[in-house]
Amino acid sequence: MIKIATIAGSDASGGAGLEADLKTFEEYGLYGMAAVTVIAAMDSENNWAHRVFPLEEAALRAQLDTIFKGVGVAAAKSGMLGTFYAVELTREYIETYGVKNYVLDPVMVCKGAGEALNPELNQVLEKKLLPLAAVVTPNLFEAAQLSGLKEISTPEQMKAAARIIADKGARTVFIKGGAKLPGTATALDVFFDGKNFKVLEDTLIKTAWTHGAGCTTAAAIAAGLARGLSVYDAISLA
Is 98 left (phi over 0), alpha (psi -120 to 50) or beta? Predict the structure, then answer.
């Protein structure tokens, strides 16, 4: 059995976070494990805004020990980390156990929110985790944060952001969510491996049911890598 882990927040609604990751791993026929970084819920008294409750450092380390030292993995992904110690522990375990198939989903904003969850934490995440990732999977907002571009409103700006992020140490950059570009009528994502660009484009499915789409995509990429697919094939299948 191929083993894979997610280091991510728990989403009480089941649509995103580690719940989405584990469902995705199951679709790929993998044995999924999860280290909970935070518990995310929504506030029914405040327009269903997100509320985040971090787990203490010792609890996270114990989970990571169980997964990486006790069981072992062929691949791993991280999602919402939420604290500085979660970023540092993720770095420690990915490095210590030599996880090459590591997918970084740099969760910097909850869907529906308009600003970064924690700008200072995002800078640490960029420094500590970006160089370790086989693939980093930012959406348009996160790509702007990582690249330093003020905005990303065209496919060419997506490519420019991908190049900057690669120059910061990312091996492969996959910028998703190009359907939100002004005037775009298709689903459009950009792949960059440090040398070549590929634009993945398909019919846009117009739906409001997009909660957890980013988590699911990153989990699927990690699952494809665990199954031995090339980076591009894992992304394409995801």
Answer: left
